[in-house]
Amino acid sequence: MLLIGGSRSALGLLAVRRACCLSRATHSSPHALEYKPIKKVMVANRGEIAIRVFRACTELGIRTVAVYSEQDTGQMHRQKADEAYLIGKGLPPVAAYLDIPDIIKVAKENDVDAIHPGYGFLSERSDFAQACADVGVRFIGPSPEVVRQMGDKVEARALAIRAGVPVVPGTDGPITCLSEAQEFSKTYGFPIIFKAAYGGGGRGMRVVKEYEELEENYQRAHSEALAAFGNGALFVEKFIERPRHIEVQILGDKYGNVIHLYERDCSIQRRHQKVVEIAPAVQLDPHLRDRLTADSVNLARQVGYENAGTVEFLVDKHGRHYFIEVNSRLQVEHTVTEQITDVDLVHAQLRVCEGRSLPELGLKQDNIRINGFAIQCRVTTEDPARGFQPDTGRLEVFRSGEGMGIRLDSASAFQGAVISPHYDSLLVKVIASGKDLPAAAAKMHRALAEFRVRGVKVRSTAGYFTLLLFKLHFRWRSSMSYENCLHVSLLCNGQRCFQCHSHSKGKAA
């Protein structure tokens, strides 16, 4: 939690009236000349993240602008903004949100001061950040150069090495042919992993466990990266088996101040996509936590990082950590960090973009405290019984789980909503908070059990989470280590999730 003057501030000084901020900027701020208030924000995105940013803007007295594709005419994010404009007319559904010239044109025509990219789409495109700067519209995120550096995994890796941050053994640059991958495997052995050099989210990522699989996986990874990011360049790393995926939330301002807001455990994944996130990481050695957070802050300072971002690591079974990448944007799972620190990250993003320093916002490292645990589950319109294939249609019935300790972030989660086949299958993010992990897991278990959805396949996805959390909850109460508990939870992934109930016999009683 954020402690100021010995008392807990639910909004952490970030929801102070704009009039007070203006007065302080005029009379007492050491950076008064740098302060430029934001009056109107466009979100170059859709769905729940657009609504999340609109809500923060409204709380700070900032007018909001939505953009929408032809397929999103009836979507909720359009209704939640003060103004809404069509973009990408005649373009395919996803391409509309990637139409930089049209987005910039709408922003300029409607006196937009700043653009928030959300996550996905253009959020990590340095050319978009530069296009905003070129027309005098502020980009709510790092500078174009930092976005470029962090978006290039090879350059980000080199920067991490320069900052003294440990990295997984890998190629120094993108490979250009299969023979380079073969040479790497001879040096470091199997398993290895191919990764897209210019994108993330699990696309273009292939694990190779033996030589016979090398050529096929190289071709598939190249094709996936090319289709997803327009560039099929790959690099190769030694694959760390059964790691924990730990990420550190960072926040920087325009004056060189950088803080961390502790870590999240995102180890429970499906096809390299996060499905459950926990903050803080459970049973994490305090010395390891100190190393992770210190490395994250040092790397951010080295590149002059501004605004919110995430530094991601793998932690092996021996407690060694390795840098993976920096996500130069707000993460889907930022919610769990907000719940345990009482810091509104979107408020902070907006204030930093205006020119506020972190100390002015009360965001000093010594003030950031962890208060309890939080878990996020991504409820999606996918059917585990059919290999998690996305489902579409109209929601005929929707009733969510609610109550104390439950937060819901959504955009299409209401009766009558049409689930489109064109975009991400996320329906609602369910965030549970409690004094410890068992309390948070129990609240999540109860909330998911209360969900009632008809019209699309969601119910079995919620059931999958419910069983997973059941195991996590009871094994945490037992003497089993978190690593083994996590492994059992991962075994519950996909179609196997309803077949391994025997694992919990005895321990769950």
Automatic annotation (TrEMBL):
GO molecular-function terms, A-Z: ATP binding; biotin binding; metal ion binding; pyruvate carboxylase activity
Keyword Ligase: yes
Listed GO CC annotations: cytoplasm
PROSITE patterns: ATP_GRASP, BC
Keywords on record: ATP-binding, Biotin, Ligase, Nucleotide-binding
Domain Biotin carboxylation residue range list: 37-489
Biological process terms in GO annotation: gluconeogenesis
Domain ATP-grasp span(s) in chain numbering: 157-354
Pfam families: Biotin_carb_C, Biotin_carb_N, CPSase_L_D2
Protein name (database record): Pyruvate carboxylase
Biological source species: Esox lucius
